[in-house]
Amino acid sequence: MLFIPHDYQAYSIKWILDNPKSGLFLEMGLGKTSCTLTALNDLLFDYFDIGKVLVIAPKRVAESTWSDEIEKWNHVKDLQVSVVAGTEKQRIAALEARADIYTLGRDNVVWLVEYLQANKIKWPFDALVIDELSSFKNTKSKRFKALKKITPLLNHVIGLTGTPTPNSLIELWPQMYLLDRGERLGKTQGAYKDRYFYPVSGQGHVVYKYGLKEGAEKAIYEAIGDICVSMKSEDHLKMPERIDNFIELKLPANVMRAYKEFEKEKILEFKDDVLTAANAAVVAGKLLQFANGYVYDDEKKSHFVHNVKIEALKEIIDTSQEQSVLVFYNFKHDYEALAKEFKALKPRTIETPQDIKDWNAGKIQLLLAHPASIGHGLNIQAGGHIIVWYGLTWSLELYQQANARLYRQGQKESVIIHHLVAQGTMDEQVIKILKEKDKGQNALMSAVKARIKQHERG
Question: In this predicted structure, which of 276-280, 316-320, 414-418 has the lowest mean pLDDT?
Answer without folding.
Answer: 276-280
